[in-house]
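Reproducibility note. Readers wishing to regenerate the assembly model reported in the main text can use the exact inputs given here. Chain order matters: entities are listed in the order in which they were concatenated for prediction.
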Amino acid sequence: MKVYQHIVTYYECDKMGVVHHSNYVRFMEEARVDWLDQLGYGFDRMEAEGVVSPVVSVSCQYKHPTTFKDAISIELHVEHLSTFKITFGYTMKVREQVVCVATSVHCFLENNHPVALEQRFPELYRKIVETMEKK
Amino acid sequence: MKVYQHIVTYYECDKMGVVHHSNYVRFMEEARVDWLDQLGYGFDRMEAEGVVSPVVSVSCQYKHPTTFKDAISIELHVEHLSTFKITFGYTMKVREQVVCVATSVHCFLENNHPVALEQRFPELYRKIVETMEKK
Amino acid sequence: MKVYQHIVTYYECDKMGVVHHSNYVRFMEEARVDWLDQLGYGFDRMEAEGVVSPVVSVSCQYKHPTTFKDAISIELHVEHLSTFKITFGYTMKVREQVVCVATSVHCFLENNHPVALEQRFPELYRKIVETMEKK
Amino acid sequence: MKVYQHIVTYYECDKMGVVHHSNYVRFMEEARVDWLDQLGYGFDRMEAEGVVSPVVSVSCQYKHPTTFKDAISIELHVEHLSTFKITFGYTMKVREQVVCVATSVHCFLENNHPVALEQRFPELYRKIVETMEKK
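Running the prediction on these inputs yields the following structure tokens for the assembly.
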């Protein structure tokens, strides 16, 4: 899987001259979107099928500030996979230095009911398991 | 009509320590939402009736920077009202100093077709005309 | 202490029609700024004295979606207070329903060196301890 | 000059499922940053030399909505160049369809005084004039 990269824009930096901490949550989403696309099953395809994927929780540990024009590499892996939930882990680096470590938990809903990923999207489920075995 | 007020948050300020210029376009939307609410016809009520109101154009002239904790007062008035379009004018002030002067043009769409405001929302139309006469 | 309230704007909602999850991290900051202001020691006063307060980590558990015009009440309390770090807990509610539970950890830096809150800002430290005793 | 491209993220789309109109002002900044970088004189280099470049005004005409994953190509050219101000014109396209046409006016400040671009940055001035002649 290709590592996602986010180039920091001017408007993402705050008064302290560094990326505002809330933006890392957005970079995580970008990396997740890219990762699912690489598996051939993007958010847009899910939404077209009537399945949405709300965020259950997020956590971020900020290790080092980043700033304008920094290229943040975001490595994403699946930490846990259960019937109804998936937990992603993220390691963000700038020039090999870890700047942020994060996790996010997601579920899948269809008509407001929880969706079992293995049954609803068996091909995607299988591919996700494969990425976990490779690690 | 009551003047809308936006208190500048930390995350709205950029590396130069001032409100990022893109945010004024958001403050304009906040003032517009508030203004329509005061007329008794909010965006949410329109959307519930199947009418959306896309932005046709915006323009902003930045007169003076604003920063964290500034209270920006946003005076809104209707500059033009035609069959399919409405033009709002905005004057934003901090402690009586003008900080930004702006305009925005909007239309109304129902099932992707232009909506004539006077026919579709006659009560709202009448109220808007009243605000123009008072000025 | 007065509970901080954030009224959800149109631009804070995403394609799913609910507040984008990254925005809660911004609401937490707004509540924190307000809370420190209520204690008489705002971010701006600290920054003017040369002390910045980076975010060490954040975590959010999303309990219920919120949307345009919702009034989110954000109760903030200090969970832990150590020599160099402070942990805030947040409970966000809309019409008495909990929508998000969160925490954030912060340190204080002066000339890039950790600041012991009790020594650098004894009055603020005492006031924070008081809020913890009242709880 | 290479045309700048912005891929629309999920969080840039609003309740109507399209890019929120305020975001185009941010995309303009991204294109401007990239364009100055291509001329070898980025915002960061200017800021390092103590020159900031505030936005004097912006205007956007929204021609067609864009949405999640759209690749927006942003062509930038210099519309006017005077002693103290520069006006950029932007044409944004998705799959050859024009989605937004915009302009922005900028000045340059050093110690809060207007800077004459031709005198302060003669090399950059010359390169900008060259791009205008090529057009």
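We highlight two features of this model. The mean pLDDT of chain A is 95. Chain A touches chain B through nine residues (CB under 8 Å).
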